[in-house]
Amino acid sequence: MVSAMLNGAIAITCPKGLGFPGFNLHCRPIHRPNSVTASPTPRLSVATRCSVSVSSRPLAQPRFIQHKKEAYWFYRFLSIVYDFLRQMHHTEDMRDAFLEPADLSHPDLRVVDVGGGSGFTTLGIVKTVNAKNVTLLDLSPHQLAKAKEKEALKECNFLEGDAEDIPFPTDYADRYVSAGSIDYWPEPQRGIREAYRVLKVGGKACVIGPLYPTFWLSRFFADVWILFPKEEEYVDWFTKAGFKDVLFKTIAPKWYRGVRRHGLVMGCSVTGVKPASGDSPLQIGPKEEDVEKPVNNGFVFLGRFLLGTLAAAWYLVIPIYMWIKDKIVPKGQPI
Ligand SMILES: C[S@@+](CC[C@H](N)C(=O)[O-])C[C@H]1O[C@@H](n2cnc3c(N)ncnc32)[C@H](O)[C@@H]1O
Question: Which region ranges are annotated with the description SAM motif I (predicted)?
Answer without folding.
Answer: 111-120
